[in-house]
Batch of 2 targets.
Target 1
Amino acid sequence: MRKSMYQIVTAALTLFVLGGALAGCSGTGQESGGEGAADSGTEISSGVINPETPAEGIALKDDIVIGMQSKHTTIDQMEASNTQHNYLWRMIYDTPLHFNNKTKELEPQLATEWSTDDGGKTYIFKLREGVKFHNGETLKASDVVFTFNRMEGTTSCNGLFLKVESVEAIDDLTVKMTLVDPNLDWPYMMTLPTACIQNEKAITEDPVDGPGVGTGPWKIDSYEFGNYTKLAAFEDSWRGAPNAKTFTFRYIPEDSARLIALQNREIDICQTPAAIELGRIEEDPALDLIAYEGGSLTYMAFNTQREPASNEDLRKAVAHAIDIDSIIAVAAEGRGKKATSFWGWDEYGYVDMGGYERDLDLAKEYLNKAFPDGNATLDISVGADRKTIAELIQSQVKEIGLTVNIVELDSAGISTSTTNGEHQSCLYGMGFNVYGDDARRILQPGSAVNKALYDSDEVMELLDKAAAETDEEQRKEYYKQIQENIYEHVPYIPIYFADGFIGVKKGTGGIDIYPTSHHDFSNVFVPAE
C-alpha cells in the first residue's frame, strides 16, 4: 500500500496492534471472531516445531487429513462462524485485507490499497487485478458489493452488514464503503472470516454450492456434513499453489479417537487434543505437539435480565467465592492463565484489573444481601466441554451457602438457550479480536454474543466514542472505563485463557497459528512416509 494512504489510516489503526489475535471459538459454547497471532515456528531442542516452509528436497504428502472435534454444517461462510468453519473459510476464501501474525500489521489481500479521508466514515479499497475465483470468474468490485448486500439477515455476517450504510463499485477495481458511524477499526474487520468475498455469478447460478466458490488456494471438492469435507488445490490461486493436492476435514468428535487416529497414521493433524492426553503426544517420537498461548477466554455470564442473576450482590458473591487458580489447575491441567479483566489480553485497550480474589467472608456478605432469608440458588447452563468447571464452581460456592444447579446442554442447546436468554447463568467462551471495538459484540444489547444480556447506556456511549477517537490516550481511557464498569457490576466473570494445542505428524508445518484457535492451514505441509 502506498505510504501516503497508509498514513491516513494507520495514525489511529497501528495503535491497536498490541499482540495480535483477531478472535475465535471452539465448536461448543464459544463465539467466533477473526484473526490472531503467535510465531508459526516454535523452537525446541530437536529442531523447529511447525516450521514455516518445508526443508529443501523433502518429500511431501499429497493428501492431508485433519481430525476435527466438530463437524461442518455449511459451505456458506455467511451461515457459520466458529473454529471448524473458519478453518475452511481461510482456505477457500480471501478477505479484502490480511492481518500478519508475525509483524502485527495490516497487509493487502484482495485489496492492495485502502484509505479514509473523513475519520473512518468512508473507505476506498483498490482491488488486486486478475484474481480468479474457483469457477474461472475474475474478481470485480461488483462481487464485493454483492457479498456485502448478501450479508443482510445472515447468521454470521448480519452484524457486519449493520455497520454499513452503502457499498458501491466506483469501477471494476474500486470499492467505496460508507459506514453508518465512523469506525477506525473497519480495516481490521476486513480481515475477519465474516468479510470473505464471494462470487456473484456462482451464487446466482447455483444457490446451494455457489456460496462455496472463493478465490483462496483451496476449492471444495466434495462434502458430506457430519462426516467429511474434502478440498482440492486451486492451481490458479493468486496466493500460489498449496503444498498438497487434497486436504480433508474428517469429523472425529471423541478426543481419544482423534489421538488414536493420529498415532495410527489415519490422520495427519489432530485438532484440539484433550489436555490429559498431551503428554502422550509429547512422548511419541513420531509426533509433534504444537503449543501456543491461547487467546480464547472461558468466562461465566450472568443473565442480568432474569432473577436471581439480575441481582448484582449475588454476582459479586460468586465472583469472590470461586477459586480460579484451582479451576485452571483441574479443568485446564494447569495449561492456561488467569483472566484479570473482561477483555482480550492482546486486544487494544486492555487494562489489568487484577481479577476477583477469593474472599469467602466478603462473598458471604454479598450473598446475605442478595438472599437475606437464605435458600440461595443459581442455575448454571453448560456444555459438556465445560462441565468440570461448573462442578468446581458448584463445590466452591457451596462454602458460602449458595446452591448451584448444573444444567447440561449439547452444543446446539447451549447456544440457543443462551441466545434466547433462557439461562440464569452460563459458562461460555469467546476469542477477542485485536481491535478494541470488538468488545461491542459481547456488550451490545440484542447481540447473540451478549450472553449476560447486559444493557448499559454508559458502556455503549463509551464504545461509540472510542470507535471514532483518534487520540490514543483518550481512546485507551474510554476502554479502561468500560472494563471498570464490567468489573464493578459483574455481568461477566472472566476465568482463564487456556493454552492451545495441535497434535501433528512429526515435521508438519506451514500452519499459521492464531491464539483464538482459528488457524490457517492454507500453506500446511506434511512429510511423506
Target 2
Amino acid sequence: MNFKNLSIRTKLILMLSLSAIIALSVLSLTSAYYIVNNQREHSLHNLTQLVQITGENIKASLMFDDEESAAKILEPLSINPNIEEALLYTPKNRLFASYINPNLSIAQKETILKTRLKNLNPTLQQTINWDQISVMTPIFVNKEVIGYLKIDSDTKDIESAIINQLLRLLIAGGMIILIIVLVSFKLHHMFTTPIYKLLGIMDEVSLNNNYDISIEIDSNDEFKELYAGFSFMLSTINSQNKKIEFIHNQTRDSIEYSANIQKALLAKENDMVEFFDDTFTIWKPKDTVGGDIYLFETLRHKDEALLMVIDCTGHGVPGAFVTMIVKAIEKEIVAKLTKSDFDINPAIIMQYFNKHMRILLRQDTKGSFANAGFDGAIMYINKRENILRYAGSNTPLFLVQGEELRVIKGDKESIGYKKSNPDYIFKMHEIIIDEETKVYLTTDGYLDQTGGEKGFLFGKKRFLKLINYAHNKECFEQKKIFENSFDAYKQENEVKDDMTLVSFKINPSKGENL
C-alpha cells in the first residue's frame, strides 16, 4: 500500500491510532501510581495490626506496673529491621517501656526520646510520610486508658517497591517513546513537507508579489487538490492584479494631472507678493487633490483686490470638482466687478455664491442627488481707501493691529447646500487700515487636526497663541512656524482634512498710490 495515495482521512486515522498508544502509556503510568499508593496503604495496615496485637500483649505489664516484662514484650520487634522505635507511655505521658532500633545513630535515638512524646490522643493515629510510617493506639482496660503504644517504621520497603515499579515503567515508556518518535518523524515528513512548501510559496508571493509560480507536488491525496486550487487562485490574482495595476496607473496619472490643474487654479503667488507688504500661504490637501482653494484677483486698479479662502465639501476628487465650480463662479464675479463702478461688498458676493451654486448643481430642485457647497471667507482690500471688508461662512478672521489680536466671527451659514437659505443675508465687517495690519485666514483642517498627548483638536486657543508668538516675525519665518507646529502637534495621527492657511501684512497707504 502506497501511503502517498491514502486520503488525509486515512492518514489521520493512523495518527489517532498512535495517539491511542500514547494514551495507553499514560494510563499505565497512572496505574503504577495507584499501585504505589496501595503498597503504602498495605504497609500502613500491617503496622497498624502489629501495634494493636503488641498493645494487647503488653496490657498486663501496664496493669501490674511491670516495666521489665513490657520491655521484653517489645524486644521481638527487632526481627523487623524497618521498625525504628516502639514507645509505651502511661496516661500521664511517662515513658514506661521502649524499643529503639540499635542500628539508629545516637542523635536519632536522642531525638526519639526528646521529641516523640507529643500530641498523644486516646484514638488510633496513623500517619505516613515519604520517610516514615507512624501508628499509635491507646490501651484500654474496662474502657479506661492505661497507656499508649506508638510504633514508627521507615519506608524502605515502599521505596524499594516504587523504584522497581518505576524502572519497569521507565523501560516500557522508553520503548513506547522511541516508537512514537520514529513514527512522528515519518508523519512530520508526510504532512508538514507539503504545508511548509506551500508556506514558502505564500511568503514568496507576499514578499515579492510574484504570482508567476509553478507549484508541483508528488502526491495523489487532498494536498494535490489543495495545490491545484492554490495555483488557480494565484493565476487568477495575477491576472486581476495586472488589470488593477493598469486601472490604478490610469487613475493615478489622471489624479496627478488633475492636481496640476488644481494648482493652476490657485492664486498666483507673485500677484499676492506684489500686492501685500508681506504674505505667505500654506496649502496642503489631504490627498493628491483636495477641496480647499484660495483665490486672489486684482480688480479695477492695482490697489484693489479680492481674496477668497474656501473649504469645499469633502476632500480628494469630489472636493476638487467642487473647487472647479467655485473657481468658475469666482471668475464670473471678478469679470462683473472689474466692469462695475459700485461699492464692492463681500457679503453680497457670498449671497451670489449661495444662489448660483445651488442653481449650477441643481440643488434648488426637489429630488436632486447633489448636495455640495462650501464654508469660507471673502475679503475685499482697497489700499487707496485703507479698508478691508470681510464676510465669512463658518470661517473666522484673525486680525492683528498693533499688538492687539482680534477674532471676527463669520456667519453660521454654509454656502450652496440643499439646506442653505438662498435668501440669507451675510454680514459684512469693515476694518480701517490705520496702522500695520496682519490677517490670518484658515480652513478648519488646521484647527480640527487631532494630536498632542491626549488626541484633542488643535483648536482656536492654540491657534491664537501661535499667532501671538509669530506675528512679529517675517512671513517666511511664520510659514515655517505654522507648518512645524502643525506637524509637531499631529505626531503620528492621520491628517483629518485638507488644510489651507493664508496670511498677509498690509500697512496704511500714505497717498502715493492715489
